[in-house]
TrEMBL record:
It is an enzyme of class 3 (hydrolase). GO terms for cellular component: cytoplasm. This is Glucosamine-6-phosphate deaminase. Pathway: Amino-sugar metabolism; N-acetylneuraminate degradation; D-fructose 6-phosphate from N-acetylneuraminate: step 5/5. It comes from Cryobacterium arcticum. Belongs to the glucosamine/galactosamine-6-phosphate isomerase family. NagB subfamily. The active site is at 68 (proton acceptor), 139 (proton acceptor), 144 (for ring-opening step). Residues 17-225 form the Glucosamine/galactosamine-6-phosphate isomerase domain. Its EC number is 3.5.99.6. The gene is nagB. GO terms for biological process: carbohydrate metabolic process; glucosamine catabolic process; N-acetylglucosamine catabolic process; N-acetylneuraminate catabolic process. Catalyzes the reversible isomerization-deamination of glucosamine 6-phosphate (GlcN6P) to form fructose 6-phosphate (Fru6P) and ammonium ion. HAMAP family: GlcN6P_deamin.
Length: 261
C-alpha cells in the first residue's frame, strides 16, 4: 500500500518530496521527472530550488515530462502548461529547457500528439518519479472519473468542476479550455515511483477515495492502489477523511531507518 505521511504544513510536505527527488538526481543525474502543474507541486518545486541553491547539484541532464496540457491555447499563452512548467519548475530549478517535454496541444497535430508523447517517454526509459496532485473530482493528471486504468496519453474532456477550479488562472471561466491532452492512468502507473500530494479540506474526499476507496475508474486517484511504490504527502485537512489515519501515523513513526521516502 501507499506510504501515507501526514505533515503539519504544505511547506513540510514540499521539503520531504524535494529531498526524495534530490536523492534520486544524486544517484541518477539524468533522472526522468514527471512534472505536475497547478498549486499543489509548488511547495516541492520551491523546496527543491532552495535546496539546489544551498547545496548545488548538477541538474543539467535531468529530463522531465509534464503530465498534461490544454488543447488549443495559442502558443506562448501564459497559462499553457508549457509556460507554467517553464515558470514554476524549469527556471527555478535550473533544468535544461530542451530536456523538458510537454504534450503538444496544437490542434494541427492533435491526432498523433498522444502516441508521440508515449513514444518520447518510452525512449527516455520511463519516468523515475511522478509528482501528482489530485483534483476535487478525484482526477490525477486530467483523467476525469471514468478514465480507464489502461489509458495512455490522449485527449480528454475536462469536467465543468475542473474548469471552474482552474478558472482562477484565467480571465474568466469560459476561457478555460474544454479539452486537454493528459498522460493516461496507464502511463502514470508505469512511472517507477509516485508522489501524490494534497493540501486542504477540499481535497479530503478525493484523497480518501484514492487511498481507501474501492479501486474504480470512478475515482481515478485509486489507481495508486495498483502501484507498488507510492508516497502520499498530505496535510491534516486533506487527511481528515481517512479512516486508517492512526495506522498511517503509527507506520510512519516506526519507519525503519533504512527506508527512504
Ligand atoms: C496538473 C494536474 C492536475 C492537478 C489537479 C490539482 O498537472 O494534472 O491533476 O494536479 O487538478 O490541481 P491544484 O494543484 O491546482 O489543486
Amino acid at each position: 500500500m501507499a506510504e501515507v505521511v501526514v505533515l503539519e504544513s504544505e511547506t513540510d510536505a514540499g521539503i520531504l518530496a524535494a529531498a526524495s527527488i534530490r536523492r534520486l538526481i544524486s544517484q541518477k543525474p539524468d533522472a526522468v521527472l514527471g512534472l505536475a502543474t497547478g498549486s499543489t507541486p509548488m511547495s516541492t518545486y520551491r523546496a527543491l530550488a532552495e535546496s539546489l541553491r544551498a547545496d548545488p547539484l548538477d541538474v543539467s541532464r535531468v529530463r522531465g515530462f509534464a503530465l498534461d496540457e490544454y488543447v488549443g491555447l495559442p502558443a506562448g499563452h501564459p497559462e499553457s502548461y508549457r509556460a507554467v512548467i517553464t515558470r514554476d519548475a524549469v527556471e527555478p530549478l535550473g533544468l535544461t529547457p530542451g530536456n523538458i517535454r510537454v504534450p503538444n496541444g496544437d490542434l494541427a497535430t492533435l491526432e498523433t500528439a498522444g502516441s508521440d508523447y508515449e513514444a518520447a517517454i518510452r525512449a527516455a526509459g520511463g519516468v523515475d518519479v511522478q509528482i501528482l496532485g489530485i483534483g476535487r473530482t478525484g482526477h490525477v493528471g486530467f483523467n476525469e472519473p471514468g478514465s480507464s486504468f489502461a489509458s495512455l496519453t490522449r485527449v480528454k474532456t475536462l469536467t465543468e468542476k475542473t474548469r471552474i477550479d482552474n478558472a482562477r488562472f484565467f480571465m474568466s471561466p469560459d476561457d478555460v479550455p474544454i479539452h486537454c491532452l493528459t498522460q493516461g492512468l496507464g502511463t502514470i502507473r508505469r512511472a517507477r515511483h509516485l508522489i501524490l500530494l494534497a493540501f486542504g479540506e477540499e481535497k479530503a474526499e478525493a484523497i480518501a477515495g484514492a487511498i481507501e476507496g474501492p479501486v474504480t475508474s470512478s475515482s481515478p486517484g485509486s489507481v495508486i492502489q495498483l502501484h507498488p511504490h507510492v508516497t502520499v504527502l498530505v496535510d491534516e485537512a486533506a487527511a481528515s477523511r481517512l479512516t486508517n489515519l492512526d495506522y498511517y501515523r503509527y507506520a510512519y513513526a516506526n519507519k525503519p531507518a533504512w527506508q527512504v521516502v
